[in-house]
Amino acid sequence: MSQLFSEGEVNPGDQFIFTDAWHPGIMQLKYMSELLQIPVIIHALWHAGSYDPQDFLGRLIKDKRWTNNFEKAVFHAVDHNWFATQFHIEMFKRNCFRQPYSGHFSELSPKEIEEKYCRTGWPMEYMAKTLEPYTNLEKRDLILFPHRIAPEKQVDIFRDLAKTMPEYEWVVCQDKELTKHEFHTLLGEAKMVFSANLQETLGISTCIEGPLSGAVPLAPNSLSYEEIFMGYDDFVYPANWTKDFAWYKSHKTSMVERISYIMANYENVRGSLEHFNKHQIPKYFSFDEAIKVLFKNA
């Protein structure tokens, strides 16, 4: 970027997109833009941060004074802060700023501050075509855990269910060194993708890869899932069932019954996927809203 500025390639009104807002280059870009008096428009996509207590940054970084202030600075340096779900926006407001922003250090009005929050789906329109070759595979009694193995994903719950319900095949995808083709094949053969997540600001494997492949999602009715699966009751269970492992044990019988019902009635439950894929996936896995703003500013 500095070379572009030094060579005179950057003009007022040029737009820069950062695919992850946790990028120190944002501050460098803002620095050069301001000091050289070449105003540019900055877009950034927020995935997670230290404001989420279940995220890596939230869990592992103890001194959050620097992360919290960095995130605030990035938010103000960026003109359009893009979030994939309203759930994520509200969590960011609540945990990053901890209170409604007063505007004390800014000439921006509360309305202008609010307009810096923007919601768009992520640019994943390509997934339908990518997964199309796997959508007609023969299904078997396979349940997938498609997430990374991390504390906030609670894989121990999945492993315990596997021991309890041996009549089904259970696969933790990260236990295997899968190629993309192998992973997509498993999605195409699975009847269910399971989540017990404590952290999720969108949900790629559960909310797009699984449904497009004909795998029924089963997730807690909280986080981004509550928003994306609203109106699709077969896809969610009460969030307190997997609040932690102890809560899971207390509600294990109910969870087993729910899974058994979905697997036994897979074809009927699967019918909701077509409606979900048509009406919900375009809202959360399409970059259209951001593109409209990009072209408006062009």
Features:
alpha/beta, Rossmann fold, 2 domains, 16 helices, 298 residues, five-stranded parallel sheet, single chain, 11% strand, four-stranded parallel sheet
Written account of the structure:
- The chain has 298 residues and is of the alpha/beta class.
- It folds into two domains: 2-119, no CATH class; 127-284, Glycogen Phosphorylase B (Rossmann fold, 3-Layer(aba) Sandwich).
- It has 16 helices and nine strands.
- It has helices spanning 2-6, 25-35, 56-60, 64-77, 86-97, 110-114, 127-131, 155-164, 180-189, 204-212, 223-228, 245-250, 252-264, 266-279, 281-284, 288-297, and strands at 15-18, 41-45, 80-83, 117-119, 142-145, 169-172, 192-194, 216-220, 236-237.
- The strands form two sheets. It has a five-stranded parallel β-sheet, sandwiched between helices.
- The longest helix has 14 residues, at 64-77.
